[in-house]
Amino acid sequence: MLFDLTGRLANEVIGENLEILFPQDSCESSMNHIRRAVSGERWEVVEIPIVHRKGSIRTVLWNSATLYERDGKTVMATIAHGQDITESKKAEETLKESEEKYRHLFESIPIGIMYQDAGGEVISVNLAAEKILGLSLDQMKGRTSLDPRWNCVHEDGTLWKGDSHPSVVAL
Question: For the residues of 20-50, what is the DSSP string, one character each?
Answer without folding.
Answer: GGS-GGGHHHHHHHHHHHHTTPPPS-EEEEE
